[in-house]
Here is the input.
Amino acid sequence: MMKAPICPRCQGELREPSAWHSAWQCALHGAVQPLRRARSPSPEGLQALLQKAAVPVWLPWPIPVGWLVTGFTGAGDDRGGTRGCVVALSGPNPVGGLGEMLLISEEPGLGLGAGFAGLTGPDPGPDFAAGQPHAFVRFGHHEFPLWHVDSPGAAAFAGEVLGNWLWIILWPDTAGLLLLESLSLRDLRDPGQDLDLPFGAKSPRLPG
Here is the structure.
């Protein structure tokens, strides 16, 4: 049986929609988009996420050497589709040991990236993007800036791509060295992609 969805901001329990409330309700954050439990790192898990994705499903391509895709999840309901998408990867940290990465695309105000980064607000915060960008990603023929966001124990970066937030969160914080060179991204929703994705064990960073 599928486990109940949880809050995208605090991963707490939700109250289902009812005659009095049309949205899923978190006791702490009010009306939210329900976050689903992790889907398996497999072609089937990816297709399940893509089926109702209303925002990009980002993947670095080529994937950094030695890294594997380790799961998917999304936030949204049956009416509006999946309005926040998460792709998890793991691989060698540039300074040694294991690194983990989440790529998150979400509509503003959803709070999914902030929740995974350990922040209280739904978005990066009032001082976000006050200075020069700290990293860049490429999509198509364009480069998009990212700014570092303080996150306990992680290297978190955020920016706006195609009208949605993009978060890249890496553990431990030293794995942020991967962004010294800009990553090229693919939106896995785009047709005509025949990518042979390397899958690994499910990420412990994803719920469920």
Q: What stands out?
A: The helical segments are 43-50, 112-117.
